[in-house]
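Issue 218. Parser rejects a valid record. Input:
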Amino acid sequence: MSEGKTLWALRALALALAILAWAFISLDRERQAERPFAATIQYNIPSQLVLLEPVETVSVRLSGPASVVSTLNPFDVFVVVDLTDRSEGPVEMPLTLRNVIRQASLDVVSIEPNVLTLELDRLVSEIKPVVARLSGEPAAGAVAGTPSVLPESVLVRGPASILSRIQTIDTRPINLTGHAIDFSEQALLRSPDPLITVIEPSVVTVQVPLQIPNAPGDNNLSSDAGRESTAADGE
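Output the parser choked on:
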């Protein structure tokens, strides 16, 4: 075979390979595929309301070009639920393809569940008293008295229905281990519910009284009290 014919043969082979590659890519792009996604829900809520027990995700099945579906990141698909025109109380929110944010080349096959049952509550602020929580055992047989807290109450914010059931706000446990005399300690406050926020203050000062039973001072006080009782009986 002459050099010219060999060159043309190589050019023809290269052209054929290029056509095959183009055809393969085109067919792959045209091939359709389906895939389910756990889509995160984003809620738009009025500032004066709060959503109780929100549904976090729904299953969205999408279809489209296989090359797109196979490489799609789950974070690229999410659902937006607009509650800005809703009021306090139970809400049933149907989901349609308009709620699903995804690439334009993808179609929504199904959404499960396709109706969300939700409840909106009023967001309120209230003053609640603080209770100090103690843990551990004092040293030298000391006994803890009733602790005092400064300030005695704090401002909290949350759903009205939940706040109505909460009587007090607790501190983080204060460890008595190693203490035998009165001491004070700053303590963080603990939210009683994920939807309850402690506004201010977030830290309080707790004063813990400790007393050792049968201490010398206690014996003297007991003796004095006994003598006073005897004198009173003699009169």
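Fixed in the parser; the record now loads. Helices lie at 3-30, 66-69, 160-163, 216-234.
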